[in-house]
């Protein structure tokens, strides 16, 4: 088993003194993140430097506006912080314009609507059950309430995006905006194909790269820059930054994007988050990050192959990126049951719908796993067969209701995790 974390009084002395209850919860989360195998593809470990940046005195500043054009005084340092983040984003992703102020991915996407559409306009996005995101015009989202959402899907036989359907819908519906990207898309996104369709119908193409931004920055996934008008992304996930977001675009769209973010949707930016984004982007520009991005993909491919060898059904048959979507129908274990059992075994995943899922979203047929976090800890392809074995044993234990088996797996997981310290976590 892994060694206990340092006490809260040592790792967070001020917090422990002011609020011992909250400090204890932080310490418990540190222990949990250290001891478990985190396979949720949208999660990661940030560096100690990113963590430090989020806790600086930049938290104390209000800075409505943009660098050199603020509505508050005392911005001498803040303007430089934001400029650093903007210039690093432009360099890492090769874009003409970057806005680093969006609070998160959903507000960033909403800003794209505000910039390029009017309420009631048609938008075309990937259907949520097929791997898309709520903010791509899905009905329960504000984007599907305020705008007319039309959804494309995947081919039943391959689970790959049906570009014939995308093109036919675009020609028929004439959307103002087309979204590409998603939250459960295990294959390479063909940005060129989307760009061709968008140009044909005179739509703005928004590439939502929240999940794959780090892979793009590290050259492990094609970039949307030559094809998309606007690029939306979170700054955590594979990019290993803080919980924030960015909107990037062609120079011709800069004014519309900036106006939509502020004053359109937001007040003052979160300057401590902006600083942490700048740190993460500096890290992403290093050669070692390129190695990391490619290792994430290599691990995902190796894990997918090991699961296939154990008889698991993978949506699209495998993966090209960081994400593997598993259909558990043939294992006769619902995704939610499997996910909760794996959690008790120290393997953190999320239950997820699969394309054409006959089950309800809150009790779906699949689980979604990914390799960003374990790669950040230094696990390589040689460890992926063991990870697949643990998943298999956990699913089998879930089917049998065998809690003792889950306890055994949890001990094995904690022992291995102790050999791979996580970035940013306090050491014993």
TrEMBL record:
GO cellular component: a single term: cytosol
Annotated coiled-coil segments of the chain: none
Amino-acid positions noted as binding (6S)-5,6,7,8-tetrahydrofolate in the UniProt annotation, renumbered to this chain: 128, 132-134
Alphabetized CDD domains for the sequence: SHMT
GO biological process per UniProt: glycine biosynthetic process from serine; methylation; tetrahydrofolate interconversion
Cofactor(s) needed by this chain: pyridoxal 5'-phosphate
EC number per UniProt: 2.1.2.1
Pfam families: SHMT
Keyword list, A-Z: Amino-acid biosynthesis, Cytoplasm, Methyltransferase, One-carbon metabolism, Pyridoxal phosphate, Transferase
Subcellular location as annotated: Cytoplasm
Catalysed reaction, written as an equation: (6R)-5,10-methylene-5,6,7,8-tetrahydrofolate + glycine + H2O = (6S)-5,6,7,8-tetrahydrofolate + L-serine
Residue span, Serine hydroxymethyltransferase-like domain: 15-391
Pathway: Amino-acid biosynthesis; glycine biosynthesis; glycine from L-serine: step 1/1; One-carbon metabolism; tetrahydrofolate interconversion
GO molecular function: glycine hydroxymethyltransferase activity; methyltransferase activity; protein homodimerization activity; pyridoxal phosphate binding
Site entry (Plays an important role in substrate specificity), positions: 236
Protein family: Belongs to the SHMT family.
Subunit structure: Homodimer.
Biological role stated in the UniProt entry: Catalyzes the reversible interconversion of serine and glycine with tetrahydrofolate (THF) serving as the one-carbon carrier. This reaction serves as the major source of one-carbon groups required for the biosynthesis of purines, thymidylate, methionine, and other important biomolecules. Also exhibits THF-independent aldolase activity toward beta-hydroxyamino acids, producing glycine and aldehydes, via a retro-aldol mechanism. Thus, is able to catalyze the cleavage of L-allo-threonine.
Protein known as: Serine hydroxymethyltransferase
Species the sequence originates in: Streptomyces lydicamycinicus
């Amino acid at each position: 088993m892994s060694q206990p974390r340092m006490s809260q009084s040592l790792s967070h002395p001020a917090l422990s003194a002011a609020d011992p209850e909250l400090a204890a919860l932080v310490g418990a989360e540190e222990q949990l993140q250290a001891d478990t195998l985190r396979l949720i593809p949208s999660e990661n470990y940030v560096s100690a430097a990113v963590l430090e940046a989020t806790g600086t005195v930049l938290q104390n500043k209000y800075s409505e506006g943009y660098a050199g054009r603020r509505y508050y005084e005392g911005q001498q340092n803040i303007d430089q912080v934001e400029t650093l983040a903007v210039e690093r984003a432009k360099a890492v992703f090769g874009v003409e314009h970057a806005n680093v102020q969006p609070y998160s991915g959903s507000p960033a996407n909403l800003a794209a609507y505000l910039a390029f559409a009017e309420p009631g306009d048609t938008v075309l996005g990937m259907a949520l059950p097929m791997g898309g995101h709520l903010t791509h015009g899905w009905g329960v989202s504000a984007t599907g309430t305020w705008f007319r959402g039309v959804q494309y899907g995947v081919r039943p036989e391959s689970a790959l995006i049906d570009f014939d359907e995308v093109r036919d819908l675009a020609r028929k519906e004439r959307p103002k905006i087309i979204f590409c990207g998603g939250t459960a898309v295990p294959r390479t996104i063909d940005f060129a194909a989307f760009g061709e369709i968008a140009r044909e119908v005179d739509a703005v193409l928004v590439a939502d790269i929240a999940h794959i931004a780090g892979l793009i920055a590290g050259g492990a996934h094609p970039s949307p820059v030559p094809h998309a008008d606007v690029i939306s992304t979170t700054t955590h996930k594979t990019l290993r930054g803080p919980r924030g977001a960015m909107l990037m675009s062609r120079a011709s769209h800069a004014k519309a994007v900036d106006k939509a973010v502020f004053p359109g949707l937001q007040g003052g930016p979160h300057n401590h988050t902006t600083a942490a984004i700048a740190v993460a982007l500096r890290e992403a520009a290093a050669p070692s990050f390129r190695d990391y991005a490619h290792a994430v993909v290599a691990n995902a491919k190796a894990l997918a192959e090991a699961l296939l060898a154990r008889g698991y059904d993978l949506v699209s048959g495998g993966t090209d990126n960081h994400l593997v979507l598993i259909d558990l129908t043939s294992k006769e274990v619902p995704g939610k049951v499997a996910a909760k059992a794996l959690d008790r075994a120290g393997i953190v995943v999320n239950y997820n719908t699969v394309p054409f899922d006959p089950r309800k979203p809150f009790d779906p047929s699949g689980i979604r796993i990914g390799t960003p976090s374990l790669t950040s800890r230094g696990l390589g392809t040689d460890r992926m067969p063991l990870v697949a074995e643990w998943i298999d044993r956990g699913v089998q234990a879930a089917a049998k209701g065998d809690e003792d088996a889950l306890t055994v797996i949890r001990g094995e997981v904690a022992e291995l995790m102790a050999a791979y310290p996580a970035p940013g976590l306090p050491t014993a």
